[in-house]
Amino acid sequence: MSALNRPLLLVLPALIAALACEPLVTTFDDIEGVTYYRASSIQPTEAADSLVVVTWNIKYGGGGLDFWFDCWGERVLMTEKEVTENLDRVAAHIVQLDPDVLLLNEVEVSSRRSAYVDQVQYLLDATGLNYGVYASLWKSQFIPSDGIGRMNMGNAILSKYELSDGERIALKLRSDQDALTQYFYLHRNILTAKVAAGTNSDLYAVVIHTAAFSQDGTKQDHIDRFKEELDRFAAAGALFVGGGDLNTIPPNAETRIDFGDSKCTGDEFQADDYTNEADWLRPLYRDYFPAIDTLTYGADESAYFSHTTNSYGPFSRKVDYLFTNMGGGWVAGSGQGYNLAMGTGRERLSDHASVSAVIVVSGK
Amino acid sequence: MLIFLACLLLIGQLPAQLAEGEYWYSGTARLLPEGRKVGGLFEPLRYGRSDRLEWSVNPILALVIPNIAVKFASNELGSWQMAWRISAHYPTLLLRTLTREGSGGLLAPDPTIPQVPHLLFGRGEVLLSRRMGAGTLVTLKGGLALALKAGEFDARHTIDLPVIYPRMAAYRNGYQLNLGIDLLQELPVIVRLWVDADLFITPGFDRPLAFEHKGLTVLSRKGRLGLLVGYKLTWGDYPFGAQWHLLPLVDLQWTRQRKGPE
């Protein structure tokens, strides 16, 4: 071995490795790019006069399985068969709704608990939607707790139309956790992308999943940040459809505490008290068009409930929303909640119900 | 068992011991001299039982993962020194301990996953070493590992991390082959370089290959303490896809000679 080769022997592999490795937990910049997806087969899309927009938290393909964090069961890791069977049923529901733009929460692309199934790609290929963008909110090579292991969960936007200009906007981290827990915990985001739907003005899709369990004001900060982002698009003259799991209930919700389906007793996973949150969504309802306005909601609340932690019980609260600034708003009466289509028990599609509405595309 | 018998038959007459200053390297066909002990913070405790037999055990890990390894010197093969290394461990206790809720739970306490079965894991390897030029010792190795299980080792029992996953793949698959090469390079004064590369092949497994490479700088001034600093580069085909990892390696080792005739 020559003297020249000796240092190379040590340095070269280290350089290769430094270029190839990823950190244990991925942290994010304030603004980042996103991961783009395409369906394996692109379906031809005709210009439409209206767009169907759907938001849905799909519980990472967990269907009606009872997981440990909901305190109803002890499941941690699914088999690939369980995941694909659940996703097939999720995909069938999406096909029924036939959305042009689909906002998704709790989608996983490489997580041990969902058998490493890339759910964005799976749903694109199973629904006829063509394009997708994805942004992680929980990405770790290994979470050394409860056997969770590798995790990559996030928000996604799927569409029949091509997506571009995707951005991942970082949200504030919880401040009520110790540094180690915070490091391994969720790094939530707002995901945005431009939708090439042929509108005269640029059309953006915006999806958020706010903090659920925080007791430190983080959730309100996330909702305010979401509003700021929508304001930014509106101020720039762009159109938007935005929504997701906001983890709070409408301003006029009758029941604000003790929903009867929460089984957890500690504070960590307690999300059963919204008494101080009555005003948090008012700015969104005031400045933009909700898919289901307070009048409609108040007339029949249970029809629009979109979440429960009990797979065998009825949906108990509305936490999933759609908003737009499109002129004229949503088509009257098009806002729908699909809790009755979610099934019951093991057959339930998710712990959240999908919400849909239709907008007329101006300028066509 | 066949490998064990083969080892016994192949034990020859020629001594093949590590020289002074080479005690830190466990991956060669050379053995510790009789009465020589070597231990480390992370490396197993090794002991030269005789000129032709060396055993090792990791005493800290032994509390939760009983383990032992023996190395036999064998006949020379041409200009190559040859030795056989047989190792065994019982990981069930550790894996069941790690199956729990909360922090430190590396395996999921999911009621649909069967309990980790009783499992005895053994690996037999042949080691061939020879000098190549001044100050370079080359070692070739090849081995076969077998996992004897008293039940199903579920796919969700694996820990999908570098170094660990390729070995657990053998638990699940039942057997595994390994091939490797070690290079030990003496440098002037007190420094040596130890570089190796290992390939793990798990035939019939859906993700059959893993590669590991180690580069270590070994500092040993007076021969009693050795500081090993370096890295481990791994490539594995994990259930989520192929991935490289770079890990730091640090160990402090010590050595002592038992009093009495060597």
Overview of the molecule:
The complex is a heterodimer of chains A (364) and B (262). In chain A, helix 2 packs across helix 3 (119-127). By secondary structure, chain A is of the alpha+beta class. Chain A has helices at residues 5-20, 80-97, 119-127, 179-184, 218-235, 282-287, 294-299, and strands at 31-32, 35-38, 50-57, 101-108, 131-143, 149-159, 163-170, 189-195, 203-209, 239-245, 289-290, 320-324, 336-337, 355-360. Chain A has a 7-stranded mixed beta sheet. Chain A has a 7-stranded mixed beta sheet with strand order 2-5-6-4-3-14-13, covered by helices on one side. Chain B has one domain: Porin (Beta Barrel). Chain A binds chain B through residues 1, 6, 9-10, 13-14, 16-18, 20-22, 68, 74-77, 79, 110, 112-113, 115-116, 141-142, 144-150, and chain B through 99, 101-113, 133, 136, 155-156, 159-161, 185, 187, 193, 195, 213, 215, 217, 230-231, 233, 239-241, 243-246.
How many strand segments of chain B? 12
Query: How big is the Rg of chain B?
Result: 19 Å
Note poorly predicted spans of chain A.
Answer: 1-20
CATH class of chain A: Alpha Beta
Radius of gyration of chain A: 21 Å
CATH architecture of chain B: Beta Barrel
Q: Identify the biggest protein-protein contact and residues per side.
A: A-B, 32 and 38 residues
CATH topology of chain B: Porin
Oligomer: heterodimer
Distance between the termini of chain A: 72 Å
N- to C-terminal distance of chain B: 31 Å
- Total discrete domains of chain B: 1
Q: How helix-rich are the residues of chain A, as a percent range?
A: 10-25%
**Lateral strand order in the biggest sheet of chain A:** 1-7-8-9-10-12-11
- The SSE string of chain B, one letter per element, is HEEEEEHEEHEEEEE
Number of domains of chain A: 1
Structure class of chain B: mainly beta
* SS summary, helix count of chain B: 3
Brief overview, please?
The complex is a heterodimer of chains A (about 375) and B (about 260). Chain A has about 375 residues and is α+β, with helices and mostly antiparallel strands. Helices cover about 20% and strands about 25% of the residues of chain A.
